[in-house]
Specification:
Distance between the termini: 22 Å
Structural class: mainly alpha
Largest sheet: none
Helix content: over 70%
Order of helices and strands: HHHHHHHHHHHHHHHHHHHH
Shape: globular
Radius of gyration: 23 Å
Length: 399
């Protein structure tokens, strides 16, 4: 093992440096970098040393990314606790109990996850715009997640008539609702929109209603025989307007170029979600970006193509390079994680994947094989290959 790699591994064993890196990556990196004896003094190659130092810097940034992801990807995190507190503040346990027979058994948990994820996404948008969220804004982001979850469940999971669903798109405040599920939805709808300033409210309602329509259209993925192009368009609309809805919440100017970038990036994230949910969606006979493609090579190839479009677009926005660098590293980590899961799906089929063969595997088997520890071997070196200049390019195969 070369000396620089040994130094990297020693650094990863120091908890104090993890904390420091989570707070200020550049300062922590410079502090360690200055303390490292340059391999050139022992006859090392300068270019090789630069490569090692770039990987070391990526490790520090990666630590910060992981700390951030853990805020929403951990049910015991502060984001989830804040979500739970807000849920209990706004909706009484009695109303949840009344609605429980109509809602999915995991409804409250699903709402918490949406709330935590929406807050995390908006905080990352704040970082891009070099602004800081207020306590009131954090509450709005949590409320948007609760509303998003209720919208999702009302349209997809709960047996509500189409006419009634359309009334939920922009409900009237003077109407009395008797159904407990509708009451919960209405409560979060007005709690959210009434908390917004007028300018933000107008653009936010625009994207919420576009997202609502896209969600309604997505029901066709289960009930109609669609072409691949039709499925991709539905997925793109749902993902694109979902991210634009969240971007519209952050009170900064939203120009045409940025709108296009967020739309394409939202589509890419939706395609990623569909790819990792491939087994579940095949079982449900749900037509998604991934399930309508007959092999993993096609899924990966088309996912890489959308990544190129989305990342290239977001690089053209007005945001500063260092902010984009961190943001794109988050997305790069996600992308490699999705590729790792697809690699596992292939391995489960003895590297001869077909949908029929994949469906012979149990949900538990797929879940066990795609835990974080199982994905690390595939992911780690690919994550460390991150470079801002080429992040939109396809991830190089190392199989």
């Amino acid at each position: 093992m070369n000396s620089t790699l040994k130094i990297q591994l020693r650094i990863l064993r120091k908890p104090c440096l993890f904390r420091q890196a989570g707070e200020d990556v550049p300062k922590a990196f410079e502090k360690i970098k200055d303390s490292i004896a340059c391999p050139d003094h022992r006859g090392g190659n300068l270019k090789t040393n630069d490569i090692h130092m770039n990987k070391l810097y990526t490790i520090f940034k990666l630590i910060k990314v992981i700390i951030g992801i853990n805020k929403f990807n951990n049910a015991n995190s502060s984001y989830h606790r804040a979500a739970n507190t807000l849920l209990n503040e706004i909706i009484s346990p009695q109303l949840f109990t009344k609605a429980s027979s109509e809602m999915p058994s995991n409804a409250k948990s699903k709402m918490r996850w949406y709330m935590a994820e929406f807050l995390y996404t908006c905080e990352n948008i704040h970082r891009l715009t070099e602004t800081h969220s207020t306590i009131q804004q954090k509450r709005q982001y949590l409320l948007s997640g609760a509303l998003g979850a209720m919208c999702d469940m009302a349209i997809d999971d709960i047996n509500i008539q189409d006419e009634k669903i359309q009334l939920l798109k922009r409900p009237r405040p003077d109407v009395e609702y008797s159904d407990p599920v509708e009451k919960i939805y209405i409560t979060f709808y007005f709690a959210f929109f009434n908390s917004l300033e007028e300018g933000i409210k107008q653009r936010c309602r625009l994207y919420y209603e576009l997202l609502f329509d896209a969600q309604v259209q997505s029901k066709r993925q289960l009930t109609q025989n669609l072409t691949q192009q039709e499925v991709d368009f539905i997925c793109k609309e749902k993902g694109g307007y979902s991210l634009l809805f969240l971007r519209s919440l952050v009170p900064e100017e939203l120009n045409k170029q940025e709108k296009e970038a967020w739309y394409e990036l939202g589509a890419y994230i939706q395609y990623c979600n569909d790819s990792q949910d491939l087994h579940k969606d095949l079982l449900k006979k749900m037509q998604t970006f991934a399930s309508v493609r007959q092999n993993l090579q096609k899924i990966m190839g088309d996912l890489e193509s959308q990544k190129f479009i989305a990342f290239s677009q977001i690089k053209k926005t007005r945001f500063k390079r260092d902010k984009l660098d961190y943001f794109l590293l988050i997305l790069h980590v996600m992308h490699v994680g999705i590729l790792a899961k697809l690699h596992v799906f292939s391995a489960l089929c003895d590297f001869n994947f077909t949908p029929a063969k994949f469906l012979t595997k149990s949900r538990q088997e797929v879940r066990t094989k795609t835990n974080i520890r199982s994905l690390l071997g595939y992911s780690f070196s690919r994550v460390l290959d991150y470079q801002y200049e080429t992040v939109e390019a396809p991830v190089i195969s190392k199989d």
